Amino acid sequence: METFAGEVFVIGAGAMAEAFVKGVIEKRAIAPERVVVTGRTLGGRAAGLREKYGVRVAGTEAAAGARMVFLAVKPADTAEALAQVRPYLHGQPLVSFAAGVTMDWMAEIIEHRSPVVRTMPNIPVGVLEGATAVSFPEAGLAERDRKDILFLLGQLGEVVEIPERLMNAATAFSGSGPGFVCYFLEAMEAAAIRLGFDPELARALLLQTVVGTARTLREWGLAPDELRRRVTSPGGTTQAGVAVMEAGRLADVVDAALQAAARRSEEMGRAYAVVRD
Ligand SMILES: NC(=O)c1ccc[n+]([C@@H]2O[C@H](COP(=O)([O-])OP(=O)(O)OC[C@H]3O[C@@H](n4cnc5c(N)ncnc54)[C@H](OP(=O)(O)O)[C@@H]3O)[C@@H](O)[C@H]2O)c1
């Protein structure tokens, strides 16, 4: 079985760090003793990860011995965390999970001592069913490191490589996507209850309908409109329902929602972009 050679150093011990640690260890991509975690303190959440997954906990200086550094702190804490790790960077890739924080901005803070990789994961990484977009720098990253980063991130679910200019779109689409899907599901569930379902039964049917639809699309290799056409017989129930969605311009609403989310991501990211004139 393929495993990662070397140590990884993880800065941050919160939800994202845990998803990463859980994924790479449970899927046996790396041995637990080769994962080193640091938090704001070495007790607390970092110690919790050691108890739960068998990782090591150490101070920032341990980054010096790692083959890769993963940054899993909140965007507002990235400048401080990067300044702390800077003295221990000597070319090993730094992979950031921080939403909205640009590669240029991080590279400047670490004084270009290591190549910077930016990712946009989403909440289902917590159950290793995430959708992660990743952007690699144009230069300075070895091909072997690029492959290893894709391999490690791949333990958390699906990974797609995108140019950094699409990161705001990825934030709006796959990043906020679980929230949008849930909004639709809330409406489906409420409607099912109004149709007479008991809430527990409604929830069970709802979840299996979503998981089953996604799996069918994936396993049969179909586009959503193809599967929709297959289940829509002329004059049938699906057609009656879709006609109402079309009359309510649901597609236009979804389009406007993603545009608004992407604009908001761009606005929020301005704080973490290098402006050169
Ligand atoms: N969770 C997700 O599914 C998800 C999805 C997409 C993107 N992300 C990104 O992942 C990043 C982390 O999010 P999260 O949900 O994991 O946040 P979180 O649960 O708040 O965890 C952040 C962790 O970083 C630690 N920390 C803060 N400053 C530090 C420093 N200077 N050195 C070492 N550790 C430090 C915090 O310590 P304390 O506990 O002491 O505060 C905390 O353990 C964010 O940038 C977010 O945009 C997360």
TrEMBL record:
Source organism superkingdom: Bacteria
EC number: 1.5.1.2
Pathway stated in the Swiss-Prot or TrEMBL entry: Amino-acid biosynthesis; L-proline biosynthesis; L-proline from L-glutamate 5-semialdehyde: step 1/1
Name of the protein described by the UniProt record: Pyrroline-5-carboxylate reductase
Keyword terms: Amino-acid biosynthesis, Cytoplasm, NADP, Oxidoreductase, Proline biosynthesis
Coarse class of the protein's main subcellular location: cytoplasm
Recorded catalytic activity of this chain's protein: L-proline + NADP(+) = (S)-1-pyrroline-5-carboxylate + NADPH + 2 H(+); L-proline + NAD(+) = (S)-1-pyrroline-5-carboxylate + NADH + 2 H(+)
Molecular function terms from GO: pyrroline-5-carboxylate reductase activity
Species of origin: Alicyclobacillus macrosporangiidus
One GO term of the biological process aspect: L-proline biosynthetic process
Alphabetical list of Pfam families matching this protein: F420_oxidored, P5CR_dimer
Family in the record: Belongs to the pyrroline-5-carboxylate reductase family.
Compartments where located: Cytoplasm
GO cellular component: cytoplasm
Role according to the record: Catalyzes the reduction of 1-pyrroline-5-carboxylate (PCA) to L-proline.
Boundaries of every Pyrroline-5-carboxylate reductase dimerisation domain copy: 164-268
